[in-house]
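Holo prediction. Input below; ligand is zinc ion.
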Amino acid sequence: MTDESGAYECALCGATYETAPEGFLGLDVESHDGTVENHWYPGFCSTEHAAAWFSRPLPHPDAVYTWEPHTAGADWRFWGGVVGGLALGLAVLALAAVGTVSLLG
Ligand SMILES: [Zn+2]
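Structure of the complex:
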């Protein structure tokens, strides 16, 4: 993980580095629990420390996103747009027809 100063910090031992040392790992970890998506962005000074970190229960996540599963509501919005577009097209055609008829009349 990196802090505001840009230092690289090991999530396990807390060692910090100004620049990424050789073998430093930066990981993007995510878990899905129902509709909740948890994210972690841990950094490790070595693969051994990464392995030790993963052998423990995950800490409180850095970020939690709630995602909406695909629902019928999204389909309704899509089809509403399709039907609305068709209705608008028909209305334009109807107006054009009325205009043509009134010109002929
Ligand atoms: Zn470490």
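The mean pLDDT is 81. That is the main takeaway for now.
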